[in-house]
Amino acid sequence: MEKFAKIKQLIAGIETDAGKFYNLNNGAAGTRVRKAMQELKVLATDIRKEVTEKKIQISS
Questions:
Q1: Staple 17 to which of 11, 29, 31, 40, CB 3.0 to 4.6 Å?
Q2: CA separation for the pair 15, 1 (Å, rounded)
């Protein structure tokens, strides 16, 4: 659940930058959004692995 909380925190944190990029065409904000999206990807992959491992343990 710790990683899931980090995902929620990251999304909340980039909301302003996403608005700046899409509404104001702020390139630097777009760079921050891309960086955060990469972090989200890594966290999501980690969570998927954890879920798979836990499902295997439950099934055993």
A1: 29
A2: 22
Query: Tell me: the pLDDT tens digits for 34-58?
Result: 999 999 999 999 999 999 999 988 8
- Classify the phi-psi angles of 25: left when phi > 0, otherwise alpha if psi is within -120 to 50, otherwise beta: left
Structure tokens at 53: 């491992």
Q: State pTM to two decimals.
A: 0.81
Rounded-to-10 torsion of CA 13, 39, 18, 31: 120
Q: What is the Cα 18 distance to its own chain's centre?
A: 13
CA distance 25 to 47: 33
Which of 9, 45, 16 is CA-nearest to residue 32? 16
